[in-house]
Amino acid sequence: MSAKTEIQYAQQTAANEEMKGSSMLIRALAEENVDVIFGYPGGAILPTYDEIYKTGIRHILSRHEQGAIHAAEGYARVAGKPGVCVVTSGPGATNVVTGIADAMIDSLPLVVISGQVATSVIGTDAFQEADMVGITMPVTKHNYQVRSVEDLPRVIKEAFHIATTGRPGPVLIDLPKDVSVATGIFNYENELDLPGYHPTVHPNRLQIKKLQDAVTKAEKPVILAGAGVLHAQGAEELTTFAETQGIPVASTLLGLGAFPGEHEQFLGMAGMHGTYAANMALHEADLLISVGARFDDRVTGNLEHFAPTATIAHIDVDPAEIGKNIETHIPVVGDAREALKSLVEMDGERGDFTAWKNTLHEWKTKYPLWYNEDDETIKPQRLMEEVYEATNGEAIVTTDVGQHQMWAAQYYHFNKPNRWVTSGGLGTMGFGFPSAIGAQFAEPDTPVVAVLGDAGFQMTAQELSILQELNLPVKIILVNNASLGMVRQWQQLFYEERYSNSLFPIQPDFVKMAEAYNIKGSRIDNLEEVRGALDEALAHDGPALIDFRVTPDENVYPMIAPGKGHHEMEGVTP
Amino acid sequence: MKRTITATVNNNSGVMNRITGLFARRQFNIESITVGMTENPDVSRMTFVVNVDNYRSLDQVIKQLNKQVDVLKVRDITDESTVERELALIKVVAAPQHRSEIEAVASPFRASIIDVGRESVTLQVTGDQEKVEALIDLMKPYGIKELARTGVTAFKRSSKKTTIDNPRYSIIN
Ligand SMILES: Cc1ncc(C[n+]2csc(CCOP(=O)(O)OP(=O)(O)O)c2C)c(N)n1
C-alpha cells in the first residue's frame, strides 16, 4: 500500500483561477497535504465526489459513515495530522455525530465536510436536510455553513488551522450543494483573520519558575501525564524532565505512551482501573503536576478525596480546563511540549525524593496488577500479555470500549508515543475497529492490532469490507466473553447480579463472518494455541481475525467504585 | 453572586445560538442577555447578568466564553465603573381614580406613561436593575398585568473615577 497518492491536481490550476466550489475544496485539501479522505457519498455531496473522481485524490469508502469518522479519528491520533471525513447531508451527516463528539472530548483534529441542501431550500425541511451546524455546535471546536463560494477557501483554511492548533478538535464545514457548483476565485494565500482565536502556546516564565520551585521543595511529587503531551508531541521532553528531576510518572488512559511504559519511574495508569501505585501516588503526593490531562472523573474518582494533600500544578493549552474540576495552585497555560521544554531548560535544583521513591517502589512490587490463571479458559489479561509479547510491544493497538479496553491499557506497555488509540472521554463502542483502519493508513508499515469486545465489534463490523477491498493488514483480536462484559461486571457488583440485557444468548460465527469477507479467520479457545495463532496472524500478509474465547465472567480489577476515592480501591490483591 | 459580563462577538448568524447553547450545556445560570450591533457592524456586543456560586465558577464562565472562536473579548465589569441600563415596560391595572397616584409614584423614577387603556396604563422606565426593580415593586400593589424587560446592557465608563465612590442616598438617579 502506498502511503501517499500522487497529488497531480495541485498543479492543474493556477492560483486565483476561477473554479467551482467542489474543485476549490479538493484543491484546498491538496494545499493542506491531505493524503486520504474517509467518507461516503450521497446527493448533496455529489459535486464533491465528482471532483474526487476526476482528481484521483485518495478516498476510502466506508460501509457506514460512523466507520469513516472513526477511521479519520484513528488516522489523526496516529499521524498527528487532521483526519478528513466527507459525508452527504441529512442521514450521512447525522451518522458522524457520534464520531465528532468522540473527537471533541478526546481532542482529535478532524475536518468534517458535510453536504447540505441548496441554500434556497435550507430551513424548509427539504429532502435530506438536517441542521448540522445546530446539531454539532456543542460537539465541535468550531463549525461553519458556507453560504457563498467566495468564502469557501477562507473557511477551509480556517477549519484546518482551528482543528490543529491550540487544543485540537473537530471542525465541521457544512457545504450546500449550490455552493459547491457555483464558481468563484480560488485564493488560498490570504492571511488568516481570526481575531477571536489566539491559543496560548508559550507558557508564562514566572509560572514555570513557580512550578520548578515547587518541585525543588517537594518531598512527594508525581506527574500525571495526559493526552495533551501526545498532541503536543512532547513525550521526549516529558521523559527528560521526569528523569532529570527524578519525578515518578502516572498516566491517564489516553496519555499512555507519553512516558515509556516500562520505565522504572512509571507507575502505570491512574484512575478507575489504574494501578495501586499510580492511584496511591496521586492520593499521597504533596505536589501533583498534571500535564495535558483534564481531571476527568474516571481519573480522579470522588473529587472530595482527590489528592487531598497536594499542591496542584496544571499545565494545559486550554485555559478553561484549569480550575474546571479542581482548584489549581500553579496554573500554567501553554503547549505541553513548550512548558516541558522550558522546565528542562530551566534545569532547576533537584529535590530529595528518596523516601517517596522507596514507598512507591514498595507499592509497585507489593501490589502489582494481578489475575488468577485457571486450567480451563484463556484469561483475557493473559491474552493481552501474549499480544504484547507477540508484537514485541511495537504494534499500534486500538481498542473498543469495555473490559478488554481496560485490560489492553493495563497489560500492553507503550514505550513509544502514538501507538495507543482508544475512545476515552466518550467511551464510544464501535470505535475500535474503524479507528484501526485509519491508524493503518497513517502508518502503513506498522502492525496494527484491533483489540475488540464481541459486542463493540458488532457495532461497526461492516467495515470488514475495507480490509477485504484493500487487503489492509489490520489484525482483529476479538476478546470474546459472550457478553457486554463491562456492563455485566457492573450488574454483578452493583445490581445484585441482575444481568439485564448483557449476556448474549446467541452470537454470530465470527470466523465465518471474516471468511464472508475473504478474511483469514480462526477461533482459539485454549491457552496453548494463543501464541501460535497470534504469530500466524501477525506474519500473514493481510487482514486476520481471531475469535479468542476468553473467561466469560472475568472482572477488571483493581477498581475504584463510583463515588469512591483513590485510597478506597478494591481488588488490589487476589 | 450576580456578575455583569460583556462580550464583543462576531456578528455572524448563529453566534447567539453558540452562546446560549454554551450557557445551557455548562449549566451556567443567566438572568439576562442583551445583544445588539456596535459601532462596527461586524461586531455585536452582548451583556450577560449571570448568577454564580463562587469565583471559580465565574472564571469558568469567562474562560468558556473566551474559548468560542466567534467571541472577541470578554470582560467582567461588575467591579468596574460602568454605565448599566435596562428598559422595562410595565402594564399596570389602573382604574381612573388611581391614575394620578400611579403617575406620582412613577415620576421620581422618570418613568413615563406611554400608553393608556380603559383599565390600565403602561409605564416605561430606564435605569440600572435596582431602579427598575424598585419601580416594579411599587407597582405590584396596583396589579401588574404585563411586564417586559430588556435585560441589562452595559459598558465601562470613559472616566476612571467610579460613581460608587460617591455615596448614594437613593436608588433613583
Ligand atoms: C455506543 C455505546 N453504547 C453503550 C455503551 C455502554 N457500554 C460500555 S462497555 C459495554 C460493553 C461492551 O461489551 P464488549 O464490546 O463485548 O466488551 P467487553 O466489556 O466485554 O470487553 C457497554 C454496553 C457504550 N460505551 N457505547
TrEMBL record, chain A:
Binds 1 Mg(2+) ion per subunit. Binds 1 thiamine pyrophosphate per subunit. Coiled coil: none annotated. GO terms for cellular component: acetolactate synthase complex. Residues 400-548 form the Thiamine pyrophosphate enzyme TPP-binding domain. One of its GO terms (biological process) is L-valine biosynthetic process. Pfam families: TPP_enzyme_C (PF02775), TPP_enzyme_M (PF00205), TPP_enzyme_N (PF02776). GO terms for molecular function: acetolactate synthase activity; flavin adenine dinucleotide binding; magnesium ion binding; thiamine pyrophosphate binding. It catalyses: 2 pyruvate + H(+) = (2S)-2-acetolactate + CO2. It is an enzyme of class 2 (transferase). Pathway: Amino-acid biosynthesis; L-isoleucine biosynthesis; L-isoleucine from 2-oxobutanoate: step 1/4; Amino-acid biosynthesis; L-valine biosynthesis; L-valine from pyruvate: step 1/4. Residues 19-132 form the Thiamine pyrophosphate enzyme N-terminal TPP-binding domain. Keywords: Amino-acid biosynthesis, Branched-chain amino acid biosynthesis, FAD, Flavoprotein, Magnesium, Metal-binding, Thiamine pyrophosphate, Transferase. Residues 208-343 form the Thiamine pyrophosphate enzyme central domain. Its EC number is 2.2.1.6. Belongs to the TPP enzyme family. This is Acetolactate synthase. It comes from Salsuginibacillus halophilus.
UniProtKB/TrEMBL annotation, chain B:
It comes from the Bacteria. It catalyses: 2 pyruvate + H(+) = (2S)-2-acetolactate + CO2. Keywords: Amino-acid biosynthesis, Branched-chain amino acid biosynthesis, Transferase. Its EC number is 2.2.1.6. It holds the Pfam family ACT_AHAS_ss. NCBIfam families: acolac_sm, PRK11895.1. Belongs to the acetolactate synthase small subunit family. This is Acetolactate synthase small subunit. It comes from Salsuginibacillus halophilus.
